[in-house]
Amino acid sequence: MKKIMFALLFSIFMLSALTVPSMSQDVTVAVSVGDWFMYEGTLVEYEADEGVPFPPNEYTQELYTYNETDWQKYTVTDVAGSNVTFEVLSHWKNGTETTYELELNITSSFGPSEALTVVQPNLEAGDQLREGYDFFVWPVPPRIINETIMFEYELGSRETNVLDWYFPVDLWAPEGAFVNNKLLWDKETGVLVKYEQITNGTAQSATDWYFSIIRNELVDSSIAALVIPEFPTGTVMLLIFIAVTVCVDIYRRKKLKRQIG
Q1: Could you give the CA distance from residue 75 to residue 89 in angstroms, rounded to a whole number?
Q2: Exposed e or buried b per residue across 41-70, where buried means at least 16 C-beta atoms within 10 angstroms of its C-beta
Q3: What three-state secondary structure class fits 129?
Q4: What is the pLDDT of residues 119-138, one digit of tens each?
Q5: Domains of the chain, with CATH numbers?
Q6: Looking at the whole model, is its pTM more than 0.85?
Q7: How far is residue 78's CA from residue 84's CA, in Å, rounded to a whole number?
């Protein structure tokens, strides 16, 4: 029973890690009906203990989606206050296409990375993107924009906001469990241009481990200035994501040491 509770709590956290209460303030939406954004998701790496299914649980569907689609196109169909509605067209590697409707609030969104497809525009380093909240008895820290950088797009450099949100979850899962989200938004429009998540966690019990890296990038858009080059040549991405590599190496070494011991 204890193992089941560990796995259940971790699974719930994976779904709710991007869930926050509403922020009571005036907001501005910088996208319009008809705007569209095409993303390519990639399952960069996946490792799991023997017997762990793929995806590991019902709350990690992004792993399957990014592995099995060529692209996903988000088209704005409605803007009402702080709410933005998208029609999402997914083109699967088997040649089929599916659509669904996604409605999000740019100050209070729920679910995986797509819930942050659009945030408030013109945020500055130090601005709070999402409030902190309590997940059962564990405090989840607020998400605050780390920095604003000049990021290289196909048509030139633009100011881009960066969120590096690392959350250890070994309060209720085994030592070394964590979720690390890195997100980049165009400052002027608040549109998500790059997302990467690294997870080191449990799948079905406290001892069933999996490790994953997923990445989602904006590769085409009705707003041409937001498109990321296919093969970025700058060193900015290296500087942004190098800390992730260090964290992964440390935790994987810890896990290996526990297995050997």
Answers
A1: 8
A2: bebeebebbeebeebbbebbebbebbbebe
A3: strand
A4: 999 999 999 887 777 766 66
A5: 2-17+31-260 (2.40.360)
A6: no
A7: 6
